[in-house]
Amino acid sequence: MSNTPTSATAIARAIQNGEVRATDIVTAQLDRIQRVDPELGAFCSTFSERAQQGAARLDERQKAGEQLGPLAGVTIGSKDNLLVTGEPASAGSKMLATFCAPFTATSLQRLEQHGGLLLGRTNMDEFGMGSTTETSSVQKTRNPFGHDLVPGGSSGGSAAAVAADLCPIAVGSDTGGSVRQPAALCGVTGLKPTYGRVPRYGLIAYASSLDCVGALARTAEDLALWLDCCSGQDGADATSLPTPEPVAKLLGERQDLRGLRIGVPRELNGEGIDPEVLAATQKAISQMRDLGAEFIDCALPSAKHAVPAYYLLATAEAASNLARYDGVHYGLRSEHEALGQQSSIDTTTLSRSEGFGPEVQLRIMLGTFASSYGYSAQFYERARLARRALQCEFQGLFEQCDVLLSPTSPTAAPHFGDKQDDPLARYMWDALTVPASLAGIPAISMPCDQTSDGRPIGLQAMAKHGNDGLALQLAHVFQQHSEHHLRRPQL
Amino acid sequence: MPKPLAIDDALLAHLGELARIRLPADRQEELRGKLQQLVSAFSSLGEVDFDVDGAPEARTVTPAELRADEAETPPSVADVLSNAPQTAADCFVVARVIEP
Asked: What is the count of structural domains for chain B?
């Protein structure tokens, strides 16, 4: 890989100019996966044949002088909850261990239409429920910056794949921080677009009012390229937004941060955050101030209710969405000997009891509780109010500020097994990412420093609904004046 | 301060029935402990006065335009059944619901 370009933008340009062949890129990436990934566990499986055939077609078209798409020859990892025709998609669950996708997700189909080459499926927490990728039933994924460290989650495989240079872009999904948090922990850049900007059709559902297809890459520039290729309305997703203005062209329009008002909400920049992470955030704020940004101290009082609100709403939606796994239509069907003998334990109950892992079962039970008769007024309805209050506060803040800043995660990457038996402590890890998810606004995580023992630290920038371009622009300017995003693990 | 809600045997059994999840006794106890911890912590939302009256409706789900009302080719029977764990005569085999 040493002589070939590694960023998506550079690869596409080199292929369009005939400087390198798409087939060589795919071969080099597959070789690297074969060498590096057995230890790392980022990919559950590769789509070698699909990628090689796609690359060969691109090379022929290039030779024939045809205009190639903006993602020509860019190899892309896709999270195991996004469907690709004829390939397995397990969402990290034993429940879907044998599932084979009958169609391709709209977001991935669009990437292929623009010349992207799907390289394989990346590991994840079961159904997106987790922040460390430890709940995957498929395999363990390690953080490239320390093999005893978690990669974050739930898009941990995608983050590890990009950090280890196994692919320049990996698609993920972000319900409460599942793209941004692993991006922070693995030292890469991750974008959760505005809710609805990228269609969800073909994404295995977790919590439909929060699920967003996002992506991870080394730079904001590559993420802008990705976003332009897969944004826009889709007839198969009634919540998808009309095709927006492209964002990649915006990146070149700004050389510094003059005129930009950046808010720093107190509730997301103080209590419960590791001192090293806070210090790194302050350092980044200082760098951005030097680049001309104006900083505003502000408050987001409802942020303290964001974790309860998020977990009550997300699990209530999950309990409903995951009801489809009944042991009949698709997914695991129990072969327990009690079947047919004991009428009180039916196929569905046994299949769900065997097929779902403990974290998914816990969340289904919590969501069932929160939305059930007798408790919904005290839990689900209160969570809806908390969400609304938070959305109103965000709207107010975006009248004073253009962007809001906070650390992405309260700590750098923890070790495997940390706080395993304490769900509340684990859920609190999401305290800085769930507010943007509840509000449906775009948010990006970018590397901004490292701890004294070398673990990456991420910085989160949130923008107004639909203003994904501004979040990307800020990250791009920051990356033009820093090198944190270029730091690579020793593998 | 209201008494925290207890996840007792009856409530846990009811939730398991609704969620169609049944676990062995040791796992059930572990689940109850975690559920109790979360429910107790999240009860705090009930004590907050969220003043959102009159606030503009925030956008979360913004439905796009409806698609044209045109018939589309449905997937084939083979496609629909391709991931079914058990089939017979082009149909899903469902759980028995009536006792013999």
From this structure: 1
Q: Is B87 domain-assigned?
A: no
- Catalytic pick among A155, A173, A178, A437: A178
Helix, strand, coil proportions of chain B in percent (round to 5)?
40, 5, 55
Specify if B27 maps to a domain: yes
Q: Which of A339, A365, A437 to mutate to test the interface with B (most CBs of B within 10 A)?
A: A365
In a domain, B55, yes or no: no
The pLDDT tens digits of the residues spanning A420-472 come to 889 999 999 999 999 999 999 999 999 999 999 999 999 999 999 999 999 99
Q: Which residues of B touch A98 (CB under 8 A)?
A: 83
Q: Let me know: does A80 contact A90? Beta carbons within 8 Å.
A: yes
H or E stretch including A320?
helix A306-321
Convert the pLDDT of each residue in A388-411 to its tens digit: 999 999 999 999 999 999 999 999
Q: Which helix (H) or strand (E) holds B41?
A: helix B25-42
Q: Is B13 on the interface with A (CB under 8 A)?
A: no
ipTM field: 0.93
Q: Count H helices, E strands: chain A? A: 16, 11
Q: Walk me through the domains of chain A, giving residue ranges and CATH numbers.
A: 8-258+442-486 (3.90.1300.10)
Cα separation of A284 and A278, whole Å?
Answer: 10
Distance (Å, whole) CA B47 – CA B40: 12
Of A154, A158, A231, A482, the active-site residue reads A154
B4 shares contact with chain A (CB less than 8 Å):
no
Q: Is residue B81 in a domain?
A: no
